[in-house]
């Protein structure tokens, strides 16, 4: 015991050795608190739990630091099904005395059995729900729910009381008596239990016996003659002396029987307990390993996320560096093209402009690019067309597609580049893009022979006349080739009108080679499958 003023440990003296205050009253209060604690302990031992709760509450009211009284009060609450109140008392006790306190052991035991704790908490919630059912008049629902509550938490005295009250209201007095007897086994002197039993007895006219049905017989005395006199209920039974023949054989038989009984008890009681202990340890190990594995998995997930974020940052930086390099290259090529353009070296300027990505240029640089391209764009475009035609003739359709696309990006779109771009897509197997460019020819040159020819190719690709392509006459193919050649010649003449005489001669040679290629396409179905795709309907047209 410590002084309540200076917290000094007290001795047998009536005065505090630290501050000198008179501690007689304090010691009397502590003694009175211990007295109530002892009375509560005695009542708890005979299952007078209500009286024990009253005594222990008085003990704590006298001296709240009585750890033993608080721990015992928690045990009594737990025995009556009040788990929340029990945990509250044990937590307060542990806070008052953190070390050498059995309340910590009680809390740990309850927390280790998480399933049991969850079941008890759920039963309390269901009990509160039953109260709401009763208030709303849903007695049947409350009765069904209370049965489940008592199955999960058989020590909840309030549950027995409420179920017995429902039975009394419905006139089921024997069922109510049964529930009240179950409550009396937990707490013999509970006033609510006794009051409800008195009501049941008044309604049925039958007294309820709370004593065990088969009470142990109480021995009164044993006389010298060997007779045994004992009391069974209200009767006194005199048992005569038994005659037993004592021999060595009987002794050995009794000894063997005792050994067998002991071995059986050992096998059926000790061994299962040992196995259960081993299983519990194994389960604890499994739980610990599972927790470790889960922790490591979470750590691995976190590290993987960090790696992914780092990889994403690296990829973003790499893309930015690549874009910066491409932008720098575009500006360097633009400067080279501008210098060559000022030096009137248009071929070098055209070559430099090929390495310029106009989408990456600023507004001023884009204006410079457009100015140069406006003057030498036709030369660049012709160069792209020449490279694309060479690739097309050699069967390198990917290169042809790339250069025809670049040529179409310069100036106004022309039929030759669009037509051969569609042809390159078709021969490379990309029919979707081929259809797209045939449709662009139709939209760009509406009402012309070029649009009509593109429509024929588009119909052949969409299946309108593909089934009869093999029966098309060579005359129709020659007419289509002649039409394409005339269109190409007309387009070349338009381009030649913008250039000098020397370029005109070169374009004529290119047109002548294109005409020869078209004638080759008209004579061979294997070289140009698109021409052989004409249908009989096209021939009739």
Automatic annotation (TrEMBL):
Segments for region (Disordered): 458-541
Keyword terms, alphabetized: Coiled coil, Membrane, Repeat, TPR repeat, Transmembrane, Transmembrane helix
Lineage, opening ranks: Bacteria, Bacillati, Bacillota, Clostridia, Lachnospirales
Coiled coil regions in record: 286-327
TPR repeats: 157-190
Name assigned to this protein: Tetratricopeptide repeat protein
Biased composition (Low complexity): 465-483
InterPro entries for the chain: CellSynth/LPSAsmb/PSIAsmb (IPR051012), TPR-like_helical_dom_sf (IPR011990), TPR_2 (IPR013105), TPR_rpt (IPR019734)
Transmembrane annotation, as ranges: 251-270
Sequence ranges of Acidic residues compositional bias: 484-541
